Amino acid sequence: MTFSQARERLRAALSKPLPGIAAHTVLAPRPRRAWPANFDPAQIRQAAGLLLMFPVADRPHIVLTVRAHTLGRHGGQVSLPGGVIEPGETFEEAALREAHEEIALPIERVRVLGPLTPIDIPVTGFRLHPIVAEIDAKPALAPSDGEVARILDVPVAELLEPSRFATVDSIRDERAMSIPMFRVGPGQGHEIWGATAMVLAEFLTVLGWNGAGTADAGSVQDQH
Q: What's the rounded Cα separation, in Å, for the pair 89 and 10?
């Protein structure tokens, strides 16, 4: 799949109903956390994340970040550039601002394609609004001191390789969980799980993916 083909698929898909929860479920940790029974929805904190696509040798790549280990609960995790929405901001404005602050993204060159389905994160009280955007060439980026330990350039084709998908049994907050994830980078050294993996599941689905480990090679990987 070329960058242009990916861009056109995204533009068409983002103008239609999205797969939403059906796609999220493929990469959601099990059991899935829910809001407490007495939780007040007005207390949900709104956040936005930028899913930026760019071409390398005419193939689509995306930007992810490794959070600094000093950032508490999410330290060391792979995530989208993003953060809390400030008063008066739209989701798109917040996603772009946060990407500029965290990775020095030149936002004047970025074109927003549209939103994916929001994801609730009860463990931290956030609702994440993913915003898909594109830029016409690989941008020069720099990690923000104190927030981002590393910037990842991830080929979309790598996420579609069945060997990059795994499910790990773990204990988190004294709960036994089954955690689906992508493993990317040299030696598959970076694990993408939780809300970020769920965002990517919907992103890949609108590109033609059929689910974890079952990419449709004819429609997704081998188009030229």
A: 24
Three-state SS for 25?
A: helix
Q: DSSP 3-state assignment of 74?
A: helix
Residue 158's Cα: distance from chain center in Å?
A: 14
pLDDT of residue 214 exceeding 80, the answer is: no
Question: 27 CB contacts (<8 Å, ≥6 apart)?
Answer: 180, 181, 182, 193, 197, 198, 200, 201, 212
Q: Give the Cα separation of 136 and 151 in Å (integer).
A: 18
Residues 176 and 29 sit within 8 Å (Cβ to Cβ): no
Q: What is the pLDDT of residues 172-201, one digit of tens each?
A: 777 899 999 999 988 888 999 999 999 999
Q: Distance between CA 1 and CA 55 in Å, rounded?
A: 11
65 strand-pairing partners: 79, 151
Q: What domains can you pick out in the chain, each with its CATH number?
A: 3-32+43-211 (3.90.79.10)
